[in-house]
Specification:
Blueprint: H1 16-30, H2 42-49, H3 53-65, E1 69-72, E2 76-79, H4 91-110, H5 114-139
Antiparallel strand pairs: 1-2
Helix pairs in contact: 1-3, 2-3
Length: 140
């Protein structure tokens, strides 16, 4: 999958939020970015494009209203399925987002290589599974 590249033309006469909205919409409709893909934060995209964050926020709001995005407070904006106005956003993707954030924080703060982080995450899942199994056995 290609990463989403947005370019704006300040001299075109087309409002910047419309340019952003339309490029993201086209990328979703063409399959360039898949369902549940997390877009840049409003602040990050504004910084990349060197524009006001309110402009990006307006584009994202319109895309959400049109059923292309779902914004979860504090988690980010995620691509929904095409014509997804009737499709509920699956909580699994919110959970995956939480895990990604946690792993990124650990990786950055502890300077852990990706391969090692994956091993440690697997160990943590195994411990959690063992602990849960032990609790089930004690209840019986």
């Amino acid at each position: 999958m290609n990463t989403l590249q947005i370019s704006i033309d300040t001299k075109s006469g087309i409002p910047l939020y419309v340019q952003i909205r339309d490029q993201i919409k086209e990328a979703i409709e063409s399959g360039q970015i898949p369902p549940h893909y997390r877009l840049h934060t409003i602040r990050d995209l504004a910084k990349i494009l060197k524009i006001n964050a309110n402009t990006v926020a307006r584009a994202y709001r319109e895309l959400e209203y049109q059923g292309y995005l779902k914004t979860l407070s504090g988690r980010g904006s995620f691509v929904l399925y095409k014509n997804a106005a009737s499709v509920d956003f699956e909580p699994d993707f919110w959970i995956v987002s939480e895990l990604e954030d946690c792993l990124k924080r650990i990786q950055n703060e502890w300077h852990v290589p990706s391969e090692r982080l994956q091993q440690l995450a697997s160990q943590a899942i195994e411990r959690l599974s063992s602990k849960n199994q032990g609790e089930k056995n004690r209840r019986r």
